[in-house]
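sorry to bug you again but im stuck and you know this stuff better than me. theres a chain ive been looking at and ive put its sequence and its fold in token form underneath. id like you to explain what the token line says about the fold, in plain words if possible. anything you notice is useful, everything is just below.
___
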Amino acid sequence: MELSEQERFQVPVSIIVPVYNVYEWLDPCMESVTGQTFSDFEVILVDDGSTDGSGEKCDWWAGKDRRVRVIHKENEGPSKARNLAMREAAGDYLVFLDADDWIDKSYLEIMYRRITETDADMAECDVYRVNSETGTKTYRVCHGVMGRSYTLEEHMKYGYTAIWKCMIKKELFTRYDIKFPDCHSEARAIYALLLAVSRKVENVHKALYYYRIFRKGSLTAKPTPRHEQENEIGILASEYLLQGFERCGLYGKYEKLLQEIVKLKLSDLLASFFYRREKEDFQLLTENYRAYLARRFPGGPDYRYMTWGGYNLNRILCNMNVLHDPYCRFNFSSLVSLMHPVRDNISCSHKNRYREMMLEREIHNQFWDILEEMKPEYIFMDFIEERFDLIAFGEGYLTKSDVFDGAQCMTGKSDDFDRAQCMIEKSRVVPRKSEECRRLWEESCSQFVKKLQKEYPSVRIVLIKNYLSEKVGDIYQQKEYENIKEIREINRILEGYYRYFENQLAEVKAVEASECSYYFTDHQYEYGAIPSHLNELANQEIARMIERSIEA
């Protein structure tokens, strides 16, 4: 039974849920909605032409709870489904929920109280990201970094670009004529604009939304654009965002920031597509991004670079105002393995596809091939991965990183890992702290520098002198790691490596990363508070240090 027109007119909150072939997930989603501690709301389920019984499931929920109503329509995508529901919504406040996610039972109560008591235009909460394959969940802070809230511009650039963790005044959409565009990454097309036009934004420092990641068949995992080519995904959303600022008379005020936002978001998309696409398709997408940025922001910084170093170096460099191409990344490797590659036929398998690709690059010594192919202006390097022991295998070496330890590496021509021989059986470990390792590294470093100078004299090297962080915490309080002695011992080795490299290459630009503010690990870092990771404030400051070194 539906609400009467009079009752619906008085409902303060409308929850909009696009539904397309999510039969398996719709019940948990709706159970979390109808079980809210706050009850004064309507739910608009928009069945977007489902073919798996989801439409019938929507009707069942409408019959079960009088606050639920259903709109059936032909399949046109989630954006048109949300836009239709917004026109139909009776509430003064809108909540957008994905049908395969769910919310805490107090979500509406807490969010509604916060947005009304503070007279804000927009409120958002923190998020749990739930792995559909493993069931593990990670906490995602949406309001700032390390206990410090974002400024408006930081929020526009670095905020978690998702609408479903927000409660938003409907008037904000109508007053500024904001709609979801019919394209991939539709939330990225309006999120920064909503923040910019809001008089006040409130943040709830509690995870109230549960976002399901790695769900098979999701649009995020396998995008299905309608009015854009596969090799242009993200460009329409970027253009819609910029046009929205132009329409609202805010483009001039935020022009430089918008350039940074667009480059960052397109770089994020490249990172997500890197291990999902064939090389040719991925590189076409990358070049289309470069061409679009050159047209939209003529005269802006635009150069190509390669990365050699730890994963956190990727996070540092992504704060620089250029497009970031993950195809040019080399993580989890060492100079010894680069200059003394293994010659045997080795296969590797890892549950994380990105890590597997990095291992394959080391095993097959692909650095020089990609350097020749891409012809970058810069190579940005740190030696964080040189903290690991080495594995001597035949005449070559591999890096015994945590990624290697989490993989299956076999020798032989068979593709069957059960029949292939584990390479560990034919190898020996060279401890990082050993004299043998020191000699090997210095020899490899000298060979690396000579090869670069001889074959790639135009490539400029920027050495980012990163170390394992000794402390973990937030901006208010930090504590030393329990294994601080071991960390300092490794850092002394790294210090010697940096010094040796600078002596070998006089023209290298060196960045003293550890001199930046807040050089420690964020205790809430989503993927683990380990010493090889820093925090976003430090990463941003180091990025600025690198940019200054390039300009000098």
Residues 219-224, 417-421 have pLDDT under 50 and may be disordered. The longest strand covers residues 201-213. The chain has 19 helices and 25 strands. The CA atoms of residues 69 and 370 lie 55 Å apart.
